[in-house]
Automatic annotation (TrEMBL), chain A:
Membrane topology note: Peripheral membrane protein
Function comment: Component of the endosomal sorting complex required for transport II (ESCRT-II), which is required for multivesicular body (MVB) formation and sorting of endosomal cargo proteins into MVBs.
Keywords carried by this UniProt record: Cytoplasm, DNA-binding, Endosome, Membrane, Protein transport, Transport
Keyword Transport annotated: yes
Principal location class: cytoplasm
Domain of life: Eukaryota
Subcellular locations according to the entry: Cytoplasm; Endosome membrane
Complexes and interactors: Component of the endosomal sorting complex required for transport II (ESCRT-II).
Protein name: Vacuolar-sorting protein SNF8
Pfam families: EAP30
Family (UniProt): Belongs to the SNF8 family.
Presence of keyword Cytoplasm: yes
UniProtKB/TrEMBL annotation, chain B:
Lineage of the organism: Eukaryota, Fungi, Dikarya, Ascomycota, Pezizomycotina
Pfam families assigned to the protein according to its UniProt record, in alphabetical order: ESCRT-II (PF05871)
GO molecular function: DNA binding; protein homodimerization activity; structural molecule activity
Main localization of the protein described in the UniProt heading: cytoplasm
Family as reported in the entry's similarity comment: Belongs to the VPS25 family.
Organism for this UniProt entry: Lasallia pustulata
Keywords carried by this UniProt record: Cytoplasm, DNA-binding, Protein transport, Transport
Gene Ontology cellular component list: ESCRT II complex
Protein name as annotated: Vacuolar protein-sorting-associated protein 25
SUPFAM superfamilies linked to this entry: Winged helix' DNA-binding domain (SSF46785)
Cellular compartment(s): Cytoplasm
Biological processes, Gene Ontology terms: macroautophagy; protein transport to vacuole involved in ubiquitin-dependent protein catabolic process via the multivesicular body sorting pathway
Length: 259, 190
């Protein structure tokens, strides 16, 4: 023990004043920190604002640029769609961040896109059982029909549009099957076996009962049940013009073609 | 599967729809929902194919050997029974009556394929008359569909029977009058 402990009443006094001064100092530090951060943030926001304004046209028209911009916003914790369900002017509400930045155009862009996504999903439900690849959905939106034609969009836009539907409790969600992101437009969960089979189809192009037996060590009854379920949910189509029935997924029609 | 298009003697390239390269497309699906979506797809494919190749009447049996019902690349073929089902669906209201069986009732072997229905053809004819100023002139039915003056018109080389149906629509509306005997029929538009 090299240091001598202070003893006596004055020591208590000392200790209290010491801790108070530490506390005050800490508070000062913290407040300067906060205020400097606030300045930084406001500077940054105004810069972002300027950036958004001066590039508004590009953001609206160029899907790649839009995606990068959205990614940048996300990275610094600004969710472009946060509060997007609050309309401008309603109860003096401020509207979403994008709406403020870009006069509502970009915001409206996502709503419009969301409507198209819903249209595509509903329109193709009969053939794909409410499971569509993001890429295919994009393609169909881009083709568009009717007046106005298609929209120039990226996968990222589609994902964002689907997310913007969330407050509606619409049952639209993004699910991942194997390596692919898909839009599920029916609020019905796929069970593990079903997802496994869909994944297998994604990799192999199609499956048969015996393929499932060989690769997954499933009993034939199990394989048949899963396939029948998928069939009755319109998630797979059957090709009966082969020795053993082949099951294909319309959601991966795309990939099979590209290769 | 690199070749997306097949060259046909008749005309330029025809781009097949994506589903044409999806093997299960050629097996009618057991699930009703899926099957309806499938009918829908077959119907629009048949219509666009026939329009492109100017097929007015389709014999199911002949169709089985055409690329229409037979994808030689995939070695898939719609069966006779299924092809008939598809066309039958097209003749019904769900299929927007885009086809009509010819011949005895229940025979179901040859059908008119209406990529335009007679009422729609009537519109096209009416517009053509308007545009070319043929009102109150008399034209023979032959020159209407086979004459040089209609070479670029969509209804050129139209089947006489469909022409008759379409003209009947115009007659009923009081916009045309058909006269003459069997081979030498003429029409006057108002």
């Amino acid at each position: 023990m090299s240091t001598r402990r202070p003893v006596g009443l004055s020591a208590f006094q000392n200790r209290t004043s010491l801790s108070t001064s530490y506390a005050t100092h800490g508070a000062t530090l913290r407040s300067t920190h906060v205020s400097s951060l606030q300045t930084q943030l406001s500077v940054f926001q105004s810069l972002l604002h300027t950036f958004a304004l001066s590039h508004a046209e590009t953001i609206k028209s160029n899907p790649q640029f839009r995606a990068e911009f959205a990614r940048m916003c996300n990275a610094i914790g600004v969710d472009p769609l946060a509060g997007s369900n609050v309309r401008k002017g309603a109860k003096g509400g401020k509207g979403s961040w994008w709406a403020q930045m870009l006069g509502g155009d970009v915001n409206d862009f996502y709503f419009e896109l969301a409507v198209r996504v819903v249209e595509v999903c509903r329109g193709t439900r009969g053939e794909n059982g409410g499971l569509i690849a993001v890429g295919e959905c994009k393609e169909r939106v881009q083709k568009g029909k009717g007046i106005g034609g298609g929209m120039e969009v990226s996968d990222d836009d589609i994902l964002r549009a689907v997310k913007s539907l969330k407050p509606l409790g619409s049952g639209f969600s993004i699910v991942t099957v194997g390596s692919k992101q898909m839009i599920r437009s029916i609020p019905k969960e796929l069970n593990t076996d079903q997802s496994t089979v869909l994944e297998a189809i994604q990799v192999l192009g199609y499956v048969t009962v015996s393929m499932l037996q060989d690769n997954l060590n499933w009993e034939s009854a199990r394989a048949e049940t899963v396939l029948d379920d998928l069939l009755s949910d319109s998630l797979v189509w059957v090709d009966a013009q082969v020795r053993e029935k082949e099951y294909w997924s319309p959601a991966f029609m795309h990939d099979a073609e590209d290769t | 599967m690199s070749k997306r298009v097949t060259n046909d003697s008749q005309s330029l390239y025809y781009k097949y729809p994506r589903s044409y390269f999806f093997p299960p497309f050629f097996t009618l699906q057991p699930n009703t929902t899926t099957r309806n979506a499938q009918f829908e797809k077959w119907s629009s494919f048949i219509l666009s194919y026939c329009r492109h190749h100017r097929i007015w009447r389709l014999s199911i049996i002949d169709g089985l050997d055409m690329p229409l019902f037979h994808n030689s690349e995939l070695r898939k073929r719609l069966s006779l029974h299924d092809a008939r089902e598809v066309v039958d669906w097209m003749t019904r209201q769900e299929g927007s009556e885009r086809a009509e069986w010819i011949g005895k009732e229940g025979e179901k072997s040859v059908a008119w394929i209406y990529w335009r229905r007679p009422e729609e053809w009537a519109e096209v004819l009416g517009d053509w008359v308007e545009e070319t100023g043929q009102k109150n002139t008399v034209l023979t039915l032959y020159e209407l569909t086979e004459g040089d003056s209609t070479l670029s018109a969509e209804f050129h080389s139209m089947e006489p029977a469909i022409l008759q149906k379409s003209l009947n629509v115009l007659v009923k509306r009081g916009k045309a009058q058909v006269f003459g005997s069997e081979d030498q029929q003429g029409v006057k538009f108002f």
